[in-house]
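Before going further, it is useful to explain how the protein records used in this thesis are read. An example of such a record is reproduced below.

***
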Amino acid sequence: MDAARNRQAILIAASALFDRPNSAEVSMQEIAAAAGVGKGTVFRHFGDRTSLIQAVLLPRVATLRSAVESGPPPLGPGGNPDAALASLVEALFDFSWTNRPLIRALEVRGPHAYYTNEASRFWIAELTRRLATAAPGTDVEFRAHAVFTALRADVIEYLVERCGMTQNRIREGLVGLSGLPGSPPAGRP
C-alpha cells in the first residue's frame, strides 16, 4: 500500500512541478522532496525522468485520445474527413498549448523521447490516417510528421512569445499546413 501511495504522491508532485514555466529545470530531487519521498523511490517507480514525464502526461493524453477514439464527430469517428482532420489538428494544438510546460520537459529529452513515445506514435498515426482520408494521393506520412513537429510546444511558444502570433493564427496555420482544401492562407493575421 505504501508503494501505491508513494507512486501517487510522486505523480501529484511531478505534475505540479512540471506545470511550471521552467519545467525543464525541475530536478528529480525537487520532485522527491515535494512528494515526501527519497530520490531513490522516484527512480524505483519510474526508472528515469523521461518515464516520469510520460507517466504524468498519460492521464491528460488519455482524455483527448478517448475523445478521438469514441467521442462525437468531428473529433471522434465519423463525419466529414476534412472536418475530422481540422478538428484533430486544432485539438492537438490546444493540448500542446495547455500542457506546454510538461511537453517542453519531454522535448528537451531529445527527439527520441518526443517522437517515439506511445502518445506521439498514436497522434502521428491518427494524423496519417486522417490525412489519407482527407488528402489522398499526397505523402501523408511526411505531412503527418511535419504537422506534428509544428505542434511542438517549443515551436508554439516561440511563435506566440517571440513572433507575436496569436493562438488563433497558429491554429489556422496548422490546419492550413495539413493541406486541407479551403484552409486559410498561411500568414493570415
The chain has two domains: 1-47, 53-189. The mean pLDDT is 91. The two ends are 54 Å apart (CA to CA). Residues 53-189 form a domain with the Tetracycline Repressor; domain 2 fold (CATH 1.10.357).
